[in-house]
Amino acid sequence: MADAIIVLGAAVWASGPSPTLQRRARHAAALFHAGRAPLIVATGGLGLHPPTEAMAITDILISQGVPATAIIQEDRSTTTLENLGFSRKLLGPDTRTVIIVTDRTHAPRARLTARHLGYTATTMSPSLRGGHPRIILRQTIREFFAYPAYALRLRIRGKDTEI
Fold first, then answer.
1. Is this structure's pTM higher than 0.85?
2. How far is Cα 44 from Cα 55, in angstroms, rounded to an integer?
């Protein structure tokens, strides 16, 4: 069992939470109900459309039967490093083991970032079934370039775990 589940944010559209955000939040709720962790951190700040990604995740989690008392909102972040770094501050130094919920394409970079911040982290991803192939391809290409850029950025930062 992990100390917490951290759900990484995704876009909120004018019409509501994006399909990506919905898949992540539902997957986190299923993990919670399976007893994988006692707490969920919903991450993500305000994008182009309200509410914050964290609030949208929280609403979905509650609709899936997760008690509000088991949810912490981190609603300032705009990057993966901020998602995990701000979550680290909210969870405190005693939280070591986390499950990060994000898409498979993003999972390697999320784990890299989490390890840098001192977490023992695993990633669990919802199915991409129903995802648009063009969007999945775009995410894969983005991560192909983002992973080495993040690795360099984190190496330059050193072992400082503060954001």
1. yes
2. 8
